[in-house]
Amino acid sequence: MVGKYTGLSDSYLSVLKALLHASVAMGRKLVVEWVPSCDLEACAAKETPEAHKKAWKLLKGADGILVPGGFGDRGVQGKILAAKYARENNVPYLGICLGMQIAVIDFARSVMKLPGANSTEFDPDTTSPCVIFMPEGSKTHMGATMRLGSRRTYFNVTTCKSAKLYGNARFVDERHRHRYEVNPEMVPEFEKAGLSFVGKDESGTRMEIIELPNHKFFVGAQFHPEFKSRPGKPSPLFVGLIAASSGQLETLLQPSPIIVNPKPVPKPINGTVGPKKTMYPNGHAKKPLDSLVYFANGNVIHT
């Protein structure tokens, strides 16, 4: 977990819970290493060399990298470096809100050779504004100017990992909380360079989900998938991150097999009583469970 509020884990409580929900669904033990994004930056190598060394050791030893949301420019360069490391080394990556935006910034700088690329949140005078303030937002009033609540995202690439994780849905409704977004005018340039915008809003001008098609798992979401994660119904994108980090993604994305119960419960014939039933204290009969099958969207079926 690469963030700027790592000294107070409750700042990322919803993200931690979503990771736990996904880990349980995939049958894996969750181990979270906290990496302060400031410690990854070049200036930290001079000012706090031990912390810099430790941060990079943790990052390089991780099975997966998650960059959550945040505000302000402190630690942003460290987050960009984390996204770059994940992209270049085929390490599973999930970027949420700002975590998606900094992945876009890194792609512009490293792949598209635009060294000045930035978000106007951090550099209002950037020559390559790949992340911009929402056109309808107020720059003078911070209150009630965010794009909040449930918004619909349409998948325009149905074969992408994200769509498969959501059960091949045509669209999904997820909760948002942001003021900045990917600059739609630069999207054709990004797509030409290999960055895929697999999910967009109903207008097709707001970028909601990014992916690198040839990467093991490199996904960014403008929305906050952690807000809808629940025990027994984990967020699909978090399931994808955990699955990719534990070597289970390829199996998870395979089409679900048709399961046939080989031992159907016999029905009474001519008054013959069937197998003895186990009863609950309230007198209701217990139903046998042969297995539980988890789908990528967190739903469970009993067979």
UniProtKB/TrEMBL annotation:
<dbReference type="GO" id="GO:0003883">
    <property type="term" value="F:CTP synthase activity"/>
</dbReference>
<protein>
    <recommendedName>
        <fullName>CTP synthase (glutamine hydrolyzing)</fullName>
        <ecNumber>6.3.4.2</ecNumber>
    </recommendedName>
</protein>
<comment type="similarity">
    <text>Belongs to the CTP synthase family.</text>
</comment>
<dbReference type="GO" id="GO:0019856">
    <property type="term" value="P:pyrimidine nucleobase biosynthetic process"/>
</dbReference>
<dbReference type="GO" id="GO:0042802">
    <property type="term" value="F:identical protein binding"/>
</dbReference>
<dbReference type="GO" id="GO:0044210">
    <property type="term" value="P:'de novo' CTP biosynthetic process"/>
</dbReference>
<dbReference type="InterPro" id="IPR017926">
    <property type="entry name" value="GATASE"/>
</dbReference>
<comment type="pathway">
    <text>Pyrimidine metabolism; CTP biosynthesis via de novo pathway; CTP from UDP: step 2/2.</text>
</comment>
<keyword id="KW-0547">Nucleotide-binding</keyword>
<dbReference type="GO" id="GO:0005524">
    <property type="term" value="F:ATP binding"/>
</dbReference>
<dbReference type="InterPro" id="IPR029062">
    <property type="entry name" value="Class_I_gatase-like"/>
</dbReference>
<dbReference type="InterPro" id="IPR033828">
    <property type="entry name" value="GATase1_CTP_Synthase"/>
</dbReference>
<keyword id="KW-0665">Pyrimidine biosynthesis</keyword>
<feature type="domain" description="Glutamine amidotransferase">
    <location>
        <begin position="9"/>
        <end position="242"/>
    </location>
</feature>
<keyword id="KW-0436">Ligase</keyword>
<keyword id="KW-0315">Glutamine amidotransferase</keyword>
<dbReference type="InterPro" id="IPR004468">
    <property type="entry name" value="CTP_synthase"/>
</dbReference>
<keyword id="KW-0067">ATP-binding</keyword>
<dbReference type="Pfam" id="PF00117">
    <property type="entry name" value="GATase"/>
</dbReference>
